[in-house]
Amino acid sequence: MISNKILLQFFSRLNLTTLTVVFFVVFVALFIFLKIYILQPSNNSLSYSNNNQNVLGLNIPSNLDFCGEKIPANSIAIKEDLEQEFFNNKHWQSSAILFTKAQKWFPYIEPILKQQGVPDDFKYVAVIESHLSNVVSPAGAAGFWQLMPASAKNYGLEVNEFVDERLDVEKATRAACQHIKDAYAIFKNWTLAAAAYNLGIGGIKSALKRQNSDNYYDLLLNSETGSFVYRILAYKTLLSNPAHFGIKKKKLTYFAKIPLKTYKVDSSVTNIASLAKHFGCNKTLVKLHNPWLLGEALNNPEKKTYEFKIPKNLKSDYSSYLSDLIGEDGVVNEEKVVENQPEISKNDSLKSN
User: Fold this and answer.
1) Widest CA span of the chain, in angstroms?
2) Where along the chain do the CATH 1.10.530.10 domains lie?
3) CA-CA distance, 79 to 217, in Å (whole number)?
4) Number of other CB atoms surrounding residue 321 within 10 Å
5) Looking at the domain that runs over 64-245, which CATH code has it been given?
């Protein structure tokens, strides 16, 4: 047995620093022992946060909603689908480009959504459909909203060998709004309306009936439609709250819309260069600012009125806008020359607004 006297002599020889170190080591050892062998793990309720967030440096927002409709918080399957979209690095590789595009094009899209009575969250549909560019898919969908020819025509857009109004950002946005509102009128739910934008109204109606459901989150759909809303939420979070992803960027600061002068033409045109002279600019400027014009000619036997938009300031650099209007691949739509059509003359209607 060690006597009290010996213990007192031992501790009297230790300085305060040594005692502190000894106490800390004993405390840590005791805590580890209790944590491993004595204490039970606490219950972990389901939430939209990633279990690996300390490693990834990311997490999923706890209160997600789409157009004010809350995302169910009681499903592990939904949580996993959200994680797949939020932590898929390929979505965020071009985030800097997306921020710039959003600052340029949201000022054109948002007012139309508001005017048409469509929730603002739907602007992110255009982001995931095209990355805000006039791209053309292998299936034939085109423009910011990736409308198929039949859908575009159904909502009043002209699509033929001379004209493709899916490439007019504002007209295409209005057509997309009509599609979204038609879907909402049927499903009474914005989430299902978004899914219907991807799969089609008929496709969602069929899935709901076949699976006896009235909820997007309960449906078994193809991988693209099944992840569509989750991807919207991921892009919504990225662009509205970039700090959530550790991106040092402030809230989006929108660019001013390009001041444009609009000319109305209600005749056939066989030479765009001649038309450009009437506008006081060159042919390239006409083609690039009016990407809906597919070739070097405009066949218009029915005397339909077309609006050509030309920047008021011809000396400004609009190259960043034009790269989006002609598509991310940087290739202007194939030109189609039509012969034996009269060039625009002084007698044709050419009005400026």
Assistant:
1) 121
2) 64-245
3) 11
4) 18
5) 1.10.530.10
Is residue 335 very low, low, confident or very high in pLDDT (cuts 50, 70, 90)? very low
Residues paired with residue 350 on neighbouring β-strands, in sequence order? 265
**DSSP H stretches of helix in the chain:** 4-12, 16-33, 53-56, 76-86, 89-92, 95-116, 123-130, 149-154, 169-187, 190-199, 201-210, 223-226, 228-240, 272-279, 283-289, 319-325
User: Higher-confidence residue: 41 or 263?
Assistant: 263
Rounded CA separation 327/291 (Å): 10
Least confident of 13-17, 35-39, 286-290, 319-323: 35-39
Q: Is there a contact between 261 and 308 (Cβ–Cβ < 8 Å)?
A: no
Q: How confident is the model at residue 241 (pLDDT cuts 50, 70, 90)?
A: confident
Q: CA-to-CA distance for 198 and 213, rounded, in angstroms?
A: 18
Give the integer Cα–Cα distance in Å for 25 and 274: 88
Residue range 274-318, pLDDT digits in tens: 999 999 999 989 999 999 999 999 999 999 999 999 999 998 888
* CA-derived radius of gyration, the chain: 30
> Distance between alpha carbon 46 and the CA centroid of its chain, in Å?
28
Residue 65, classed as helix, strand or coil, is strand
